[in-house]
Amino acid sequence: MGLYSASCHEISEQIHQSRSARLQSSNVFARIWYNLKYKISDYVIDPIITFTRCVELACIFLPLLLSYPICLYDRKRQTGAKLWYRYIRWSAEIAGASFIKLGQWAATRADILPKGMCEELNNLHSNSKAHSFHQTKKIVSASFGNHSFEEIFEEFNETPVGVGAIAQVYLAKINQKFIKEVTDDEEKIASQLKFNKNPDNQSRYKSILEKFIIQDDPLKSNQQVAIKVLHPNVEVKIRRDLKLMRFFANFINAIPTMEWLSLPDEVDQFEILMRLQLDLRIEGYNLAKFRYNFKDKPDIHFPKPYLSFTSRCVLVEEYMHAIPLEKLLSIHKNFGQNLSKEVSDKGLDSFLQMLILDNFIHADLHPGNMMVRFYKNTHYQHKKEYKIIKSSNESETNKITEEFLNLPDDQDLWCEKLHDLYHQGYHAEICFLDVGIVTELNQVDRVNFIDLFKALSDFDGYKAGELMIERSRTPDSAIDTELFAMKVEKLVDRMKQRTFALGNLSIGDLLEQVMTMVRKHHVRMEGDFISILVAILLLEGIGRQLDPGLDLFARFVYAMIFDYDVENY
């Protein structure tokens, strides 16, 4: 939260300083002009734009509300409800970036929304159009001290390789002369993570830089990088939408029986999530920290951020030439038992490290943000230390990736190629992307999570139910608390019997049923806590596609026993 607070403070300070400088001009006419301009902007133009946006959203969402009775059709098979959920997704896509992100965030809130709605919202895609290359040049040039585009880049692919609701991504090569100019300027490098002039913040970000960044390799000449650029004016548009969301959240919260949803608090949480993504320096810092946390894991990779080239609106990072995990999952056959299990194990083990050891968790884990590369390795053991050393170089790894990406869309051909790779001694490297949002549990939530998981691992369902209510955000809003605890106890007992009978337990099935109970009994859990549960659900789903025999519950228990001491965190 320190980076978030500093980022918010910085932009408020910049606006204030910009206005103050103009309003204190020595030219009387300039002062009068800017004073009039700001008043018209604040009290006339901005309210008109906000009202117009409100009317636009009403035209999109009012028909949605009026069509709610369709949910009553064929309630047994939920035919009408599924159709209405699809309408919600379509409306969010039409409404723009803020509501696409809101829908994607809502998809993680199975504690307050029906399962079918969450599943439909998981399919939300951005319909954002790419902003013009002219706007990109303007934003990038301003971020690099108004250097000309030709001075900065040796090559720049004008067609974006990806367009999202908030930003778009290009491929480029930065000019060697410009690299030298920037990296020689130590003050420029040291200033990248300083968000304001507060001495405490400067000291903190200097230590971050020394710990996570300076140890990394510098940007090399002729190296292809990914350039992430925010859409122009996206921050202003999102801030306006957040005002409207807050207004309607307060209105709904005033309705009797709706208080348990705590919608104003949810809007506050969503605002934090959005603002974290509107400052690309934060994503750069997250990448640097993940790389530091996994520096001893050569088979887990996060793109290298180049923070001396990164600003609020532009992120420069290593380009990941890898195979999308979605592609491997689309191969319905098991693409080699050993290799698929290896991908599953490494992905899950990395998540357990984020959760249990580091308390720094990628909060947007799905197949689209995970990629796979293949490399050869050698092993050696020295003084009880067992390490993996890559014997294949980057060019060899990239060559193998290119061969895969050029293969025809033939499952048998892919399976044969993967099978051959494994027998040639190649292993999987998991690459994680898009780390703009991370979850860090505070001390209280961390202890609550551990206590709850211990109760579940001991199959003490009644205690788990009591803990969920006692340590929820609003314990008094829960209804039928005794019945809730008994339901959890019954569910856990049923799962215990299945575990002893089948040998493994689907933690995903357990969590989905718990979320249904939480929703029915108005048990309000913390957003970060729910984010972790959703990540567990997604990862178990991915893991079971790759390794049907996966027992995530057993892996959790093992990690908790051998790698985690709650008193030290």
UniProtKB/TrEMBL annotation:
Stretches assigned to the Protein kinase domain: 155-569
Organism: Candida tenuis (strain ATCC 10573 / BCRC 21748 / CBS 615 / JCM 9827 / NBRC 10315 / NRRL Y-1498 / VKM Y-70)
PANTHER family: AARF DOMAIN CONTAINING KINASE 2, AARF DOMAIN CONTAINING KINASE 2 (PREDICTED)
One Gene Ontology cellular component annotation held by this UniProt entry: mitochondrion
UniProt record similarity statement: Belongs to the protein kinase superfamily. ADCK protein kinase family.
Designated name of the protein: ABC1-domain-containing protein
The organism's place on the tree of life at top rank: Eukaryota
GO MF annotation, one: ATP binding
Pfam families reported in the protein's UniProt record: ABC1 (PF03109)
InterPro entries in the cross-refs: ABC1_dom, ADCK2_dom, ADCK_kinase, Kinase-like_dom_sf, Prot_kinase_dom
